[in-house]
Amino acid sequence: MSMTRPDTSTFGLGDTAIVATYARYDGAQRAVDTLSDAGFDVARSAIVWNGLKRVEHVVGRETVATAALKGAGAGAWFAGFFGLLVAIFVDTNGIGEVLGIVGAYLLLGAIVGAVWFGFAHWQTRGRRDFSSVSTFEAESYDVRVPMDQRDDAERILGVTRSRPIDPTPAHGPN
Q1: Are residues 147 and 166 in the same domain?
Q2: Residue 95 is part of which domain span?
Q3: d(CA 143, CA 19)
Q4: pLDDT digits (tens, 9 = 90+) for 114-160
Q5: Are residues 110 and 152 in the same domain?
Q6: Which of 113, 124, 143, 174 is the most buried (most CB within 10 A)?
Q7: Rounded to an integer, what distance in angstroms lies between the CA atom of residue 103 and that of residue 81?
């Protein structure tokens, strides 16, 4: 069985053209899917994210107690999985012993996780008393194809060089 590697010569976007620009990623994704469904060689195409930024969404207040609670959950999950592996490979005399082993690992993992996460948050001394989730967002998304395939891509997508196919402005509501 031979492994094929993608042609990385166009990953630098050297000789490519923008055939459409979208305000949302799903629009660019649909365009590439449309090209693919029409038999277009999408192997040398690209979706380029413009104006990339990292957005941190604050989801709540973080205290030593909430950090310890999260740590207990994470520690119990990890240690419980490890305990299950131990119980599988150790000679046990029934389901009671298996549950005992897994339960002991769960409890120990919850305790260690709670102490670890709680102490880590306590060390920040209140400099970061919130929890957050980070995402990457772009202002617009360009669909690029090799220059020699530009006319075919525009025909398949139904665009002209003077008219974008996504009427939503790049800075409009997502």
Answers
A1: yes
A2: 60-134
A3: 6
A4: 999 999 999 988 888 898 999 999 999 999 999 889 999 999 998 87
A5: no
A6: 143
A7: 10
- For the chain, the domain total comes to 2
Vertex 140 angle, CA 41 and 28, to 5°: 30
Q: What would the pLDDT profile of 34-81 be if each residue is shown by its tens digit?
A: 999 999 989 989 999 999 999 999 999 999 999 999 999 999 999 999
Residues 65 and 109 grouped into a single domain: yes
* Residue 154: inside a domain: yes
Cα–Cα distance measured from residue 23 to residue 169, given in angstroms and rounded to the nearest whole number: 6
> At 150, which helix (H) or strand (E)?
helix 150-157
State both tokens at 52: 């990339």
Predicted model pTM = 0.56
Q: 38 in a domain, yes or no? A: yes
Determine phi and psi for 32, rounding to 5 degrees: -65, -40
**Domain presence at residue 120:** yes
